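Supplementary notes for students who missed Thursday's class. We covered one full example, reproduced here. Read the sequence, then the structure, then the short commentary at the end.
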Amino acid sequence: MSIDEEIELEHLLFFDRKCRVCGKVKSLMDDFYLTRKNRKTLASSYSYECKECTVERVSKGRKSNLRWEYPDW
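Structure (token representation):
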């Protein structure tokens, strides 16, 4: 058996990553966004912030209370 037969792609990828924001360890491919679409096999192409924390961050940043109204001159 050669070394090429023993090593698979699974051994080279990290399947778990710790979120920078919440600190929980989650599945890399299911719970993190892919930031580089052309490199799906590299662990470095996934973000360090989980999907849940990203959605929460973006939702907080949106200004929902502001409604534009035509000025009454």
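Commentary. DSSP finds four helices and four strands in the chain. The longest strand covers residues 46-50. If anything here is unclear, bring it to office hours.
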